[in-house]
Amino acid sequence: MAELGKTELDSGWLAARSTEVDLTGIQLTTTHPPSLNSSSSPWMEAVVPGTVLGTLLKNKLIPDPFYGLENDAILDIGDSGRDYYTFWFFTTFKCAPSGNQHVDLNFRAINYSAEVYLNGHKKILPKGMFRRHSLDITDILHPDGQNLLAVLVHPPDHPGNIPPKGGQGGDHEIGKDVAAQYVEGWDWMTPIRDRNTGIWDEVSIYVTGPVKIADPHLVSSFFDNYERVYLHATIELENRNDWVAECSLIIHVTTELVENACLVEQLQTQNLSIPPGAHIDYTFPQLFFYKPNLWWPNGMGKQSLYNVAITVEVKGYGESDSWSHQFGFRQIGSTIDNATGGRLFKVNGQPIFIRGGNWILSDGLLRLSKKRYQTDIKFHADMNFNMIRCWGGGLAERPEFYHYCDIYGLLVWQEFWITGDCDGRGDPVSNPNGPLDHDLFLICARDTVKLLRNHPSLALWVGGNEQTPPDDINKALKNDLKLHPYFESLNELSSTFTNSDDPSKYLDGTRVYIQGSMWDGFANGKGDFTDGPYEIQNPEDFFKDNFYNYGFNPEVGSVGMPVAATIRATMPREGWQIPVLIKLSNGYIKEVENPIWKYHKYIPYSKPEKKVQDQIELYGSPKDLDDFCEKAQLVNYIQYRALLEGWTSRMWTKYTGVLIWKTQNPWTGLRGQFYDHLHDQTAGFYGCRCAAEPIHVQLNLASYFIEVVNTTGNKLDDVAVEASVWDLDGMCPYYKVTEKLSVPAKTTKTIIEMKYPKTKNPKPVYFLLLKLFKMSDNDILSRNFYWLHLPGGDYKLLEPYRKKKIPLQITSYILIKGSTYEVQMNIKNKSKIPNTETVSYRNHLSNREDHDMDQMEGWSGEKHETGLLQRIYRRFSRESDGLKVVETNGTDSGVAFFLHFSVHYTKKDLQEGEDTRILPVHYSDNYFSLVPGEKKRVNISFEVPSGVSPLVSLRGWNFQDEHSVY
């Protein structure tokens, strides 16, 4: 008897180009199975899940399309024809069912269509990139359990051609298919040559007894101010035999108390009879919970999850099938806000100010993995974001993506596969009626809803990007995704639901459907092009009344240059040349980038036509790649902090939210990203992290007033704001504490005007440190550090400031758990504190410099009940040999400016350009500065390969040479 449940088929696959295989699928799965024995064999090791390009790259048959200009050396499907990228995939598996067992072969997604051969039997998979396929293979399995599987995968029907100048979606032909549209290239990505052809998602066999469970739907409804909740569940059941199945259905809900200990919250058993061969929907009686732990978005509370398990037992057989899912009790809704005209989201009755980003996909070759997804989503949570928008030209994201959004509290806006560039506009106008097969689109859409609907992070469905679906599709989606009456108003309509109107019987019924990304509370709400802009800005402009006129901007973007090590790792030496800066007659600077940067979609740091001076040149003309990239990080930090602070400055009075275009790149692009494709963060990452913290003190760069932002549901009482100005000589010419403040919940409050620039003889370049702290215990709630210049000035005085040698003390604690390193760095600026008669020692508090540290998630991405610092200190007190103290020999006084850690492996005989970074690394903070006497704690977590010795290094504006601290 085979073991019940799912077995993934994710290894042992072979692949070959169809034109190089003379055998039929029947022959491959009977008399002539392929092998790698012959050097002339067309077969190679395959990447499944994955794409044809991923397999070719694995076998070094194509250059790396993400390196330099190598993508141009790969034959495009528009030139080769579809047969060139039509591939066979082959594997074997063991499965020998017995008795009344049944076996399905499941493909969670294939692009674009396929023929499946199993043990000489042929089955056809229909078209569509975003649909599941399930084949009953019970009767064609070999009695000895040895089974041969071959899949012939065909590319999209309309892969299109790439115009000489590229463009948004190439020639738009891909829009005729129900497939990802980015694959013909965009202004942030070059074309994917195989158009992502392949078995790109999970393949599995699934064993059940006589009755099978399919697509359960879980819904929660709340009453009595969220103290009382009901769990609703509807499932599909199939009796796969020719006799009546007498079944017992069991649903139980558990929640984890501590590690390996769970509390059973609810257990219910129901009996029913299922006729032979029947498919039925069954709705459980609602389950009652009192005061459940709620699921909250990031920054609003905990992401409490319950495990809901459903089992069907058949009389005379026993357990036949089971299903389980992590579920979060939460209620989400959105309406158009009367005050701003923007869409206003509420979770569990609380308004949430949206600060998030646009997401394309994790990797352009669809090399998707749970580990990569976890890193991606944790990075977004680390930036204090609370929403991710899955853009319509990309994917219907995978359950693993949503799983980590559930864990880390990221709300998800999921679009369907419509984008105006390919579906209604362009030159010439493209596909005004959308994909050719509207029925296929709706099949994929409905299946996607069923796949994802149980995730608490899923916030809303949107018809398309900058476009609405064709009228018939839009009408069908509106009907399919109509809200249950209870969720239309989010009011307590009744204490119970009858079986006939149970909300779990809807396809979804709980989330709003919006027809397009610029409609109904987004942009101007009418579909006009009122999102953007997508370029460098003067930082103060984000705070001005005329910067953006609508309540919720779904796309606003800017620069995204990575660090120099990434350029060297992804480009040959010709790509290490920095842009030429050309001074125009109007005094502004134009950047001319090298051809490789242009190919990788570099976006300049100047915009002469918008009167934005080159923001890198403000620090002085860059000398080389390292200088350029370091100055770019300074700009990245300022640019994105100002963007988010500008929006939160007008929280609820003008804006309800903003989504930045975009958070990451699915390839090695040079624009719009907070971390690069190699998973190294830019300084913009930490600018966002600072600006989007739930409680935040900030400087309005337009008015020069200090503001306190409180996005939480609790009022801040008896708090104080400290402002100190520091000059390049290490002096503190301005210091002020404003005490006994209160800030209402979900409010941005103006505190006091910064007087320093208006004082006598202000310095042309200076630093400003803002701290918000509790007066009762001096606990720091928010810390924000600015470097500023006088109006009309620049930062060129920072260039000689590099020569300052600031004395630092770095104390490191190291904890090693298997391959995971957890490093705690305590850094202190040991400069002499100036004019202590006016500078309060509150400015140099050493207790809990990072106010959120005790709430940090575990460095390995897990959640812990105990505060992180307490756990570490207990461990280190028992392992004192993990302690190391390093002091730098600095003799100057002043600010230790723009310090940043990196992690490398140690190796002899390094090759030129060799990338020694260990990635990814999670930092509690980076790209930070310390004023004299100030301390800071930074927690660092990373994994190392076997046999690798890591090196943690510290660099900064005052450290021109890498300084090892471990």
TrEMBL record:
Q: Name one GO molecular function term.
A: hydrolase activity, hydrolyzing O-glycosyl compounds
- GO BP term, example: carbohydrate metabolic process
UniProt keyword terms in alphabetical order: Glycosidase, Hydrolase
* Pfam families documented for this protein: Glyco_hydro_2, Glyco_hydro_2_C, Glyco_hydro_2_N2, Ig_GlcNase, Mannosidase_ig
Key word NADP present: no
Q: Which InterPro entries match?
A: Beta-gal/glucu_dom_sf, Beta-mannosidase-like_N2, EBDG/EBM, Galactose-bd-like_sf, GH, Glyco_hydro_2_AS, Glyco_hydro_2_cat, Ig-like_fold
Q: Which stretches make up the Glycoside hydrolase family 2 immunoglobulin-like beta-sandwich domain?
A: 211-330
Domain spans labelled Beta-mannosidase-like galactose-binding: 39-200
Where does the Glycoside hydrolase family 2 catalytic domain lie?
344-474
From the Swiss-Prot or TrEMBL record, give the protein name: Glycoside hydrolase
Organism name: Macleaya cordata
